[in-house]
Design goal:
Radius of gyration: 23 Å
Largest sheet: 5 strands, antiparallel
Structural class: alpha+beta
Shape: extended
Oligomer: single chain
Length: 134
């Protein structure tokens, strides 16, 4: 067996791997430049019984108590792809009146400002929308 061909194949594989990894890191850094991660979120909440709405300013990572709801935003980000950026946030909502330990969160998931129906927050008394991430 020719060891020169084996060594040449090993070198070519190593160079291919280096080029592939460098393209991966360049691609992921360019994607990261187009996402803006925020520290605060503006949430509009509607009380369906009184037909009154309120604007809440919630800090990412902190619990915010609104009447009988506990809101916690774990992450929010703005995309910079177009003039009207998509605002996404990961939101957890607990109902403080519900003492049932089997149902910890009444909502736990991603919310999208342009399409709130994709992951709908379903509560008999309240509706909420993500307005701003900054």
């Amino acid at each position: 067996m020719n060891t020169r061909n084996i060594n040449l194949g090993k070198n070519n594989f190593f160079y291919f791997l280096v080029i592939l990894l460098s393209h991966f890191f360049i691609f992921t850094s360019s994607i990261g430049d187009q996402i803006d991660i925020g520290k605060n979120v503006d949430i509009k909440i509607l009380d369906k019984l009184s037909s009154k709405n309120k604007l809440l300013n919630v800090k990412v990572g902190e619990d915010y108590i609104f009447k009988n709801l506990a809101l916690k935003v774990l992450k929010c980000q703005n995309s910079k792809f177009d003039d009207n950026p998509e605002i996404t946030s990961y939101l957890q909502v607990r109902d403080l009146n519900n003492k049932n330990n089997n149902e910890v969160f009444i909502f736990n998931g991603w919310t999208f400002s342009s399409s709130p129906s994709i992951q709908a927050f379903d509560h008999p008394v309240y509706d909420l929308w993500i307005l701003k991430c900054y």
